[in-house]
Amino acid sequence: MNxxxxxNLIIATMFLVVACGGSNDxxxxxxxxxxxxxxxxxxxxxxxxFPITQAVAEEFNKIYPNVQIPVGVSGxxxxxxxxxxxxxxxxxxxxxxxxxxxxxxxxxxxxxxxxTVAYDGLSVMVNPKNTWVECLTIEQLNKLWKPNNPINKWSxxxxxxxDETINLYGPGTDSGTFxxxxxxxxxDEGISRADYVASEDDNVVVMGISGDKNSLGYxxxxxxxxxxxxxxxxxxxxxxxxxxxxxxxxxxxxxxPLSRPVFIYVNTKHLINxxxxxxxxxxxxxxxxxxxxxxxxxxxxxxxxxxxIKNVISSIK
Length: 317
Fold this sequence. Notes:
The chain is of the alpha/beta class. It folds into 2 domains: about 5-120 and about 260-315, Periplasmic binding protein-like II (D-Maltodextrin-Binding Protein, domain 2); about 125-255, Periplasmic binding protein-like II (D-Maltodextrin-Binding Protein, domain 2, 3-Layer(aba) Sandwich), CATH 3.40.190. It has helices at about 5-20, 50-65, 75-85, 100-105, 140-145, 155, 175-185, 200-210, 220-225, 245-250, 270-275, 275-285, 290-295, 300-315; strands spanning about 40, 45, 65-70, 90-95, 110-120, 125, 135, 165-170, 195-200, 215-220, 230-235, 235, 240-245, 260-265.
């Protein structure tokens, strides 16, 4: 089955679960006093997905001020470590869950649902004072980021560029962005040179690049949108010409190969047994959709959700 179709079917199923609610008496629409809803919804994981989930949490709290929703940024891997032992209700992820994480969840009797919340374009940045880089190929990125004998100077990438050392910034090894980038650029997930400034917090990477003329780094597109006055985005040639990440190029797939889906994972038992989690997910999948683009990501078309809902309804009759 097509990857995006598979994840969209899961989303559709979730719409049905939340909308139908079984015999639960705590559906959002039926609550006699929305402010009476309370509880704690622990969320952790990807810094890439953080802006979406944080925006949803802030809007949700305007309706349900008594629900506490701390959203951590320990990276996709760090979030999964907590999620698969039952410490969190929701885990933000900028890559699909790994086999070893699935096994950990099974060992700890954690059932979960995977939901695609948006599409992202992993973006390469340089300092605004960099006047020489106008496009980079995947081959050039590989030369920069490969673990064995990587190049270190701009002039090694292009003889017309300055004979200056390149200072690299990027996510840490617990990041799903790190996993995706290394897989696409170096051909193997998790394989990368180690001599760069690493952080699970993309804001740290933004600060590094914005203050260093000879810097280069990468992170999710939303962090460029939020900091475009401090950064210069680099078009990437994946083999069909230079393409700049944008809402359009990410949505239509022309920004390749660095476009990707991003996810949340939801603890099924928490969803069924805790009304605050059900209400939050209901809000996330409905009102939250409009927030995806506001924070710099590409939402899935409504038609995709609607079509998959129909398919799921048909399949369970």
